[in-house]
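Thought: the user wants the 3D structure for the chain below. I'll pass the sequence to the structure tool as-is, report back what it returns, then summarize two notable features.
Action: structure_tool
Action Input:
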Amino acid sequence: FKVFSGPAQDPKGRVVALCLPKGGDLTRREIDEYTKFVGIYGAKGLAYIKVNEWAAKGGEGLQSPILKFLPDATVNDIMTRTGAQDGDLIFFGADRASVVNEAIGALRVRLGQDRGLMEPGWRPLWVVDFPMFEHDAANARWAALHHPFTAPKEDQLDLLETDPGACLSRAYDCVLNGSEIGGGSIRIHRDAVQRRVFQLLNISDQQAEDRFGFLLKALRFGCPPHGGIAFGLDRLVMLMTGATSIRDVMAFPKTQTAACLMTSAPSPVDEVQLKELGLRLRARA
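Observation:
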């Protein structure tokens, strides 16, 4: 089945199964709506298997347009791995790992909300072992996943030249109930390591000096290992109050165009203020 076998054999691909308890009552229309939803994240489709009477009928108790492509042994493995029971529904994601992670991750949250599966209470966690880099296929180059000053793990420095995609960073996020409330990293504090990262990102020595000369100079003089974390208190307040939008807890929320509806900012600027700042307005062509 090429839809699955292609991504499964691709080092950058991934195939996942998501079992929805008691999801067998979903209509075709509802499944189509979820298919459109994962399309927002780049997924090309959403395969599924409805588990009607697996316990009594085995494969004949399953319902799906993809079953004709799957050998019995594969179906048995799927049922075992997912732990699906009669009345459940299994969704599948198969594509590049980045697409599958985003699409099926978002689907999992959406299903939990729609089906009332969210558990009450606080669930904090740390996210660690972020990749250092992601490959920009459009421009055929590596890009920093966080920023180019995040330190790689000390025992993985050799991967900077040999396998950048496998190199992990010393970055971390604090997540509460699915929302990031804080994040940070240990920073690069050695000039030689910083230059190796710049070279990987196609930043020449001259470009590095022009753009980050002040930082490289500080590293050459010597600085201690350093890092930190920034917390978003407004996001935390949003969760504590049960609000669904961070704008509900901001004292002076802005629109997506950075306009303030309460103060009507930005407001017109007179010539005196512009002259004081050395600015001049030009009409659009």
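Final Answer: Structure generated. The first helix runs from residue 2 to 9. The chain has two domains: 2-114, 124-231.
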